[in-house]
Design a protein that fits this description.
alpha/beta; 16 strands; 385 residues; single chain; eight-stranded mixed β-sheet; 2 domains
Length: 385
């Protein structure tokens, strides 16, 4: 029986508790850690857990096998590296870390320990996403000529009242890092890293944040194809969408399949045969065993049990961070940025970033925690419309 600890008892922690409780024959939650120990105790009481509450995560490292990191991004490297040094397997909430330098330190610590590292990307475990991207990656419908990612959210100004949010040095970035990382991971899973990025960003509606609340990016790939990413916290209704235009068909998430063939004059008409071919492939594509955070926890436990790589590796988590840093670099310097980033690049480290990025506002007030822990859910976001 594996023993687990959750570090950080904020809004995302319940998703991990509920996931672990699906596998009580495989893993036991022994500890919940939060600097404000009362919040840890409250989470234990909510789920009637037998776990103990702690204020210092280092107290639990000697007696657990798994550490799940749910703390602010600035602390991920320290916690993960220490957990690996104690022989723990580590699952880290997104984003993996604020900068590539921290990601590299985490990956190295995992390699030295021989333990499993995975980064949370629960969108991969949504059935419609899992099935669709498996078809895209098969190449059956040709290469992806163009991908468009609309990572559109809405957050009120008080969202940035949390003390660690809205500060480049602590949070590491705004919506591009902490919201669009979900969709960027899916783009990279389907298409890989681009060769260059051109981007702009700004802050339109959040005057208690130094960081961006909108960015727009154009990605160029070595094969001559393109992608576009819009990241926003100012879109009412949060109309998120992923669109992949392949050579033979186009697919949207929320799921919608389109295929055209040309008439004699080059104008389009529907190609129902190809559309049916995609839908038949979708119908027979495998489902994930479990969905959302529960699916990722199941995969993580399997990786430990069978000594295999998880679906979402540390390298996958790092790739998303590298692309996001390239976006920040381009938007800050107004130049086209080539990938990969070198280790001497200012946007490789947190110190370098804080000296390069624009500080859109001065953070003037903060609270340590919110009483309301309800957050946006991914459930049903990508189902067929």
């Amino acid at each position: 029986m594996l023993r687990a600890a959750i570090i950080g008892a904020g809004a995302i922690a319940p998703a991990h508790v509920e996931g672990l409780l699906e596998f009580t024959e495989r893993v036991s939650l022994k500890a919940v850690v939060n600097r404000s120990i009362g919040r840890a105790k409250k989470l234990i009481e909510r789920y009637n857990l037998t776990a103990e509450a702690f204020a210092d995560y280092q107290e639990v490292l000697g007696f657990v096998d798994i550490v799940i990191v749910c703390t602010p991004p600035e602390s991920h490297k320290e916690i993960a590296v220490k957990a690996f040094s104690h022989g723990c397997h580590v699952l880290i909430e997104k984003p993996m870390a604020p900068v590539p330098e921290d990601c590299d330190a985490i990956i190295y610590a995992a390699e030295m320990s021989g333990r499993i590292l995975s980064v949370v990307a629960q969108s991969r475990f949504i059935s419609s996403v899992y099935k669709t991207i498996s078809i895209i990656k098969s190449g059956r419908f040709g290469r992806i000529n163009f991908a468009q990612i609309n990572s559109l959210w809405w957050r009120g100004p008080s969202y940035y009242d949390l003390a660690w949010r809205g500060r480049w040095q602590r949070e590491g970035g705004g919506c591009t890092l902490n919201h669009t990382v979900h969709h960027i991971d899916l783009l990279l899973w389907a298409k890989g890293l681009p060769s260059s990025v051109t981007a702009v960003m700004g802050n339109l509606s959040h005057d208690n944040s130094e960081e961006e609340d909108i960015s727009l990016s154009i990605l160029e790939y070595a094969d001559g194809t393109f992608a576009q990413i819009t990241s926003s916290l100012v879109h009412h209704g949060e109309p998120q969408q992923l669109n992949f235009q392949m050579e033979r068909a186009g697919v949207n998430l929320p799921l919608k399949i389109s295929a055209n063939k040309q008439r004699s004059n080059g104008f389009p008409e529907q190609d129902e045969d190809i559309r049916k071919e995609f839908m038949d492939a979708y119908a027979t594509a495998p489902y994930p065993d479990y969905e959302h955070h529960t699916g990722q926890i199941a995969d993580f436990l399997d990786s430990i049990q069978y000594s295999r790589q998880p679906l979402v590796t540390g390298e996958n988590g790092r790739a998303a961070i590298e692309l996001i840093m390239a976006i920040y670099k381009s938007a800050s310097t107004r130049i086209r940025v080539m990938l990969p980033l070198e280790k001497d690049d200012p946007f490789y480290s947190l110190k370098g970033i804080s000296e390069q990025v624009p500080h859109f506002n001065t953070k003037t007030h903060s609270v340590s925690a919110f009483d309301d822990l309800n957050i946006t859910s991914f459930r049903d976001t990508y189902d067929m419309n």
